[in-house]
Give the backbone structure.
Amino acid sequence: MQASQFQVQEHDLEKFRLIHTPVPDLQDGEILVSVERFAFTANNITYGIVGEKIGYWNFFPPANHNTLDVEPETKDSKWGIIPVWGMAKVVESRNLEIKVGERLYGYFPMGSHLVMKPGRIKQTRFIDEVSHRAALPPVYNSYARLDYEDDYNPSMDNERALLFPLYATSYCLYDFLLANNWFEASRSKDGQIIIPSASSKTAIGLAMALAGDSSDACPTIIGVTSQKNLKDVSALQLYDQIHPYGEGDKISPQRPSVIIDMSGNGKVLNQLHQHLADNMLYCSNVGLTHYEDNQMGADFIRDRSEMFFAPGHIQKRAKEWGAGIFEQKALAFWRKSAVKSRDWLSIKEHKATDHLSSIYEATLAGRVRANEGNMIVF
Ligand SMILES: NC(=O)c1ccc[n+]([C@@H]2O[C@H](COP(=O)([O-])OP(=O)(O)OC[C@H]3O[C@@H](n4cnc5c(N)ncnc54)[C@H](OP(=O)(O)O)[C@@H]3O)[C@@H](O)[C@H]2O)c1
């Protein structure tokens, strides 16, 4: 049997190739899954951008295809596979507890197949215990066994693959803000939350969580986005104010402010930090949608800025609240918000054989409209 893999150069994401490779024979305890569908957004591009730093290249080692290379692979021309979220079906099993035909949701390679080694098998979950994943964040190694979930609704598969990883992060950020008492920027103190790259789904999920908070404490919500997305983002009616990049000076510098940044745009952050100065109480660096402009300037306030890593927050909550509790809350938030998102988001399915490369290129170049979500289907 042949599998396909979409490989990219780790140091130059503009270089990619689709290769075909034989599926390896299974060992005892292993299963082979066939990927049915996966979502592709700026989040997956970010996996590639920070692949080396966070370890994203280590989840799915690419098949060695040196024969395709004109020149031997060097550190700079190394191929890797970007991880994606989606659904897969078990097509072969040498594991007594996992049957052929079972369907899974979780983290898969951009490709048609994956060999997995299920361990710590529970009724609705298992961990892929393949050795090269052991040191990677556990949230990514855990798979949902869809056939055994009580409230599983197959008609929401696309919304689960596309929105759950992003809205779970939005929910983490909301929980994080609450737990930190809005970093002293609550509404009673006239505070504001500023969200650059406000048109990204992770940002919109956060805006939904904040807009749904009817407490007196929830600060004013301010989105910052590009001119081309301004109209669509305003139409959401989730942000109290919305400003295009370059007009951050229209945001009040007098109000205590927290920035939850999805853009990673050094110029935008530098300008906001300079403008807000002492009132920039905390900046959470969540995303890198503007990965080409990631040099922070001299006014970027480092000692009040921190990286945010959703899997770390989920692990922390699992320790504090017990396993699975946070996931249940995040699932409930995703379900409610995914249904609400049907008003503005159009999810499109694309056949992997025809459109995988073009969707990849469009996402890398930021050409996907903010109100579109792309699913790749095998
Ligand atoms: N830290 C964590 O744990 C965590 C977890 C989940 C997601 N994230 C991050 O959150 C970010 C948003 O992900 P998403 O999947 O929600 O995004 P998305 O829905 O695909 O959002 C796309 C938006 O990003 C901006 N953008 C995308 N590509 C661009 C490009 N090449 N040049 C300029 N702008 C571009 C545009 O927004 P604007 O015009 O509004 O700028 C665009 O509307 C990603 O960086 C992702 O990795 C982080």
Summary: The first helix runs from residue 42 to 49. The pocket of NAP is lined by residues 41-43, 46, 166, 169, 197-202, 225-226, 229, 262-263, 286-290, 308-310, 365-366, 370 (CB under 6 Å). The first strand starts at residue 2 and ends at 9. The chain has a mean pLDDT of 95.
